[in-house]
Specification:
The chain is built from 4 helices and no strands. The chain has a domain at 28-85. The chain has helices at residues 8-16, 19-39, 44-70, 80-85. The longest helix has 27 residues, at 44-70. 0% of the residues are buried.
């Protein structure tokens, strides 16, 4: 049995569910730059280099962790051990 296609309103409302977390992440990203430069006193180039280094490291390690998680097979499932133990 075929399901009818989703309407624009259903797609829009589904996408709207992530808006609050995106506002939080953007606010934190803007605030951390302000904090490091104006409160902590680091230069803008140092903050930029630091944040770029962290993003590049994340860019390298995310696929590696994805491969490790995909190849994990336990009696609790594929991802549950990581969700349980990495949240501690």
């Amino acid at each position: 049995m075929l399901t009818p296609p989703l309407s624009f309103a259903e797609k829009f409302n589904y996408a709207l569910g992530d808006t609050a977390s995106n506002f939080f992440f953007q606010f934190f990203g803007i605030f951390i730059i302000y904090y490091y430069t104006d409160v902590y006193g680091l230069s803008t180039s140092a903050v930029t280099t630091m944040l770029l280094t962290v993003k590049l490291w994340d860019w390298i390690t995310d696929p590696i962790m994805g491969i490790i998680a995909d190849r994990t097979n336990t009696r609790w499932g594929k991802f549950r051990p990581y969700l349980l133990w990495m949240s501690v």
